[in-house]
């Protein structure tokens, strides 16, 4: 048990460190090339913070571990909402009201519903993956056109995301080294994490899907949590909330889209029974709260955190028996 756990933790640490290095290299290179902060936030940072989920799900799917691949995305989306709001919101309540959040919130809700519908086919095929990836590209184009039209001087949420990164490489050579080292590290870290997770599932006597939804998903969500915490501490509430919404959109459309194009994804029945509905329900509540409230305050944050704790416990035990026994 110690060896698989060490392998998984080592892979996770490498994944997180490498992703941070890769993002800094890519953002640094983009700034040197004088690409606008808005475009950097919309593309480079969005991809970088979701790179762990992408590499892990791709590695798992290519080796026949679809439970980990799909569970990683479903679990990450749940963790991004419940855990991030629950953790960060207790310290600094999230302020709502930015017009971009309304647009992005509806896109998140729509992409989640599309994902749920496709899951009912029991298999997400290549052509369905192409549609999902096309939807992500269309969303990015919509963001670019809308934000450039409404926000002068790169004052959009996506542009503000760039401000959360400091100590960037100051030359193209350093930026390239950062990016390459980060990409290699993320790929190798993903391999270690998936291998360790598979072995742990076997030793614990639980399904790979459970490990994917809990340990793997929690680990790959750490980059988003880190950037959200930094934004919240700096009182950039719109950026913090935008990080959560954007990450979940990228997970649903981008990661599932790319992985299913490379290799069709079978949907585990275990996920269809409850987890996919938890993800949909959590997303609906989150979007409704973000669009309908002025702030996501501490009471709601506590509820979200407790919800994530119960969800995680429920993956390993029967909550009904726990409360009635």
Fold blueprint:
Blueprint: H1 2-32, H2 37-62, H3 66-91, E1 94-95, H4 99-119, E2 123-124, H5 126-150, H6 157-162, H7 172-204, H8 208-220, H9 222-233, H10 237-262, E3 265-266, H11 269-292, E4 295-296, H12 298-316, H13 319-324
Antiparallel strand pairs: 1-4, 2-3
Question: In terms of structural class, how would the helical and strand content be classed?
Answer: mainly alpha
Mean pLDDT: 81
The portion of residues forming beta strands comes to under 5%
Number of domains: 1
Largest sheet: 2 strands, antiparallel
Judging from the principal axes of the Cα atoms, what is the shape? globular
Q: CATH H-level name... which superfamily? A: NCX, central ion-binding region
Helix fraction by DSSP (H/I, runs of at least 4): over 70%
What is the string of SSEs from the N terminus onward? HHHEHEHHHHHHEHEHH
Number of helices: 13
What's the CATH architecture? Up-down Bundle
Uncertain runs are: none
Integer-rounded radius of gyration: 19 Å
Strand order of the largest sheet: 1-4
CA-CA gap between termini? 30 Å
**Strand tally:** 4
CATH class: Mainly Alpha
At CATH level 3, the topology is A middle domain of Talin 1
Question: What labels describe this entry?
Answer:
A middle domain of Talin 1; about 325 residues; two-stranded antiparallel ribbon; single chain; 13 helices; mainly alpha; globular; about 80% helix
Write a compact overview of the structure shown.
By secondary structure, the protein is mainly alpha-helical. It has helices at residues 2-32, 37-62, 66-91, 99-119, 126-150, 157-162, 172-204, 208-220, 222-233, 237-262, 269-292, 298-316, 319-324, and strands at residues 94-95, 123-124, 265-266, 295-296.
């Amino acid at each position: 048990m110690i060896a698989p756990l060490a392998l998984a933790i080592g892979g996770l640490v490498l994944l997180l460190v490498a992703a941070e290095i890769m993002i800094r290299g890519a953002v640094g290179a983009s700034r040197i090339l004088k690409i606008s902060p808005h475009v950097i936030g919309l593309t480079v940072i969005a991809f970088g913070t979701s790179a762990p989920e992408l590499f892990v799900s791709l590695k798992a799917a290519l080796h026949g571990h679809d439970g980990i691949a799909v569970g990683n995305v479903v679990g990450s989306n749940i963790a991004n909402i419940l855990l991030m709001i629950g953790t960060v919101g207790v310290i600094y309540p999230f302020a709502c009201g930015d017009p971009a959040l309304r647009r992005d919130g509806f896109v998140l809700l729509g992409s989640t519903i599309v994902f749920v519908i496709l899951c009912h086919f029991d298999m997400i095929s290549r052509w369905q993956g192409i549609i999902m990836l096309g939807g992500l590209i269309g969303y990015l184009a919509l963001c670019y056109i809308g934000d450039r039209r409404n926000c002068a001087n790169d004052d959009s949420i996506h542009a503000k995301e760039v401000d959360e990164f400091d100590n960037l490489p100051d030359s193209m050579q350093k930026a390239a080294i950062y990016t390459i080292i980060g990409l290699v590290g993320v790929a190798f870290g993903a391999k270690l994490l998936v291998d360790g997770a598979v072995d742990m599932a076997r030793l614990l006597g639980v399904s790979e899907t459970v490990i994917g939804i809990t340990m793997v998903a929690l680990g790959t969500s750490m980059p988003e949590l880190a950037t959200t915490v930094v934004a919240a501490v700096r009182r950039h509430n719109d950026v913090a909330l935008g990080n959560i919404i954007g990450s979940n959109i990228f997970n649903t459309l981008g990661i599932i889209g790319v992985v299913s194009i490379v290799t069709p994804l079978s949907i585990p029945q275990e996920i269809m029974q409850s987890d996919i509905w938890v993800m949909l329900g959590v997303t609906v509540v989150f979007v409704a709260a973000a669009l309908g409230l002025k702030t996501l305050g501490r009471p709601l944050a506590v509820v979200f955190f407790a919800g994530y704790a119960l969800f995680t416990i429920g993956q390993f035990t029967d909550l009904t028996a726990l409360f009635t026994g």
